Write a sequence for this structure.
């Protein structure tokens, strides 16, 4: 192997590219929101061309065309980063089969996102298609986060660091967090900032959808606080407790932004911050779930465990002990 290939295939580069891919997928969500908030969703009125005769924006289309076309260019950049990450994973030595699936998944989802984005333009920003466009970004973020954590941590996790019931609660928090994001898209589809003055709305009552969304956020925060108390009660390791604290802080900050933007009639700046906050809440939720698993370290022939891991092992051992004759 040549020196240049050895450098390209280094694990350090894989970690950096996977992090770049994660950040790029957050950026495309925020800039996509900017397209909608500036009313530029149909700045390029067709797809894959920007106009019927040009793949790029024209002076006659003004700033709206520039904003929409700029977001398309950024989407291509996100795809190129995902492709570079996949190539780096494939040529990395020693081989990392655990990274191939996520790396391929991120690239595939970015391509699918481009197609769904194009369809949303073709159907004049139908709110349900636009909602699907955002939710696919949520899935892409989850896969990109998995790729980055595996690249950073050295592989798949293979041991619980907390008792199984608390890991199940973490899964419940992830499920509720995803539901919060889904309801957020429903709120968006029923309110203003459609992306274009002529774009349709869902027809649902914005106030009722906002209340439902707020209720789901309250449930999410409540579960997160309960999870933190439970982790403290069993003496869980610092990673899980820290992840719970970060999650609660991010949720509360996002909730505050949401309340203020609602009371101030949805100013563009706050809505943009809320979209970034949605990504951060989702990533903090994934980090919380990730903190419930770790790699079993061997020292002197015995596995090193944290108090939480010991509790998890004891919890799982009880049914086995009870079943012995």
């Amino acid at each position: 192997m040549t020196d240049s290939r050895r450098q390209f295939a280094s694990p350090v580069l894989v970690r950096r590219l996977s992090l770049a891919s994660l950040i790029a997928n957050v950026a495309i969500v925020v800039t996509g929101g900017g397209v909608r908030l500036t009313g530029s969703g149909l700045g390029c009125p067709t797809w894959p061309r920007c106009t019927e005769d040009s793949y790029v924006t024209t002076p006659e289309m003004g700033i709206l065309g520039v904003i929409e076309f700029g977001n398309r260019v950024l989407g291509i950049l996100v795809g190129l980063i995902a492709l570079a990450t996949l190539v780096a994973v494939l040529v990395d030595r020693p081989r990392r089969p655990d990274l191939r699936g996520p790396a391929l998944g991120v690239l595939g989802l970015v391509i699918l996102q481009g197609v769904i984005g194009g369809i949303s333009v073709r159907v004049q920003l139908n709110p349900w298609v636009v909602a699907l466009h955002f939710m696919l970004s949520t899935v892409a973020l989850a896969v990109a986060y998995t790729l980055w954590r595996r690249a950073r941590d050295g592989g798949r996790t293979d041991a619980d660091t907390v008792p199984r019931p608390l890991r199940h609660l973490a899964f419940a928090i992830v499920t509720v967090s995803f539901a919060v994001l889904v309801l957020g898209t429903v709120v968006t589809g029923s309110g203003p900032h459609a992306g274009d003055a002529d774009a349709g709305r869902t027809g649902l009552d914005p106030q009722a959808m906002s209340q439902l969304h707020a209720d789901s956020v309250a449930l999410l925060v409540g579960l997160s606080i309960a999870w933190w108390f439970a982790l403290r009660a069993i003496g869980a390791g610092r990673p899980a407790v820290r992840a719970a604290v970060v999650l609660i802080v991010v949720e509360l900050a996002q909730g505050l932004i949401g309340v203020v933007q609602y009371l101030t009639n949805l100013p563009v700046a706050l809505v943009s911050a809320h979209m970034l906050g949605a990504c951060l809440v989702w990533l903090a939720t994934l980090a919380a779930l990730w903190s419930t698993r770790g790699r079993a370290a061997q020292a002197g022939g015995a596995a090193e465990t944290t108090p939480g891991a010991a509790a998890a092992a004891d919890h799982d051992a009880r049914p086995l002990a009870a079943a012995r004759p």
Summary: The longest strand covers residues 297-299.
